[in-house]
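User: Here's a protein and a ligand (zinc ion). What would the complex look like?
Assistant: Let me lay out the input and then the predicted complex.
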Amino acid sequence: MAQYYYTGNLQQASNSSDFDVEFKTSSFVEYSGIYRCKTCGYEIALNAHEGKVPPHQSNSHCNNNIFKLLVKTNN
Ligand SMILES: [Zn+2]
């Protein structure tokens, strides 16, 4: 699970619409940030300008890797 310490560096989003979109492997993301697999919780960081969702690590047993935005960066 992602962690943070300084609460002043994060802000609650005003709505969930950007965080409800689901992304499969090889799809492009709209926002840079941290993405989390719905099934196993695996977290990855992606940049929007190069942001194709990668497959899980090779030793993963997750067979339903659909990612959702966890933390959207300010870009
Ligand atoms: Zn997974």
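Summary: Residues 39 and 64 are 6 Å apart (CA to CA).
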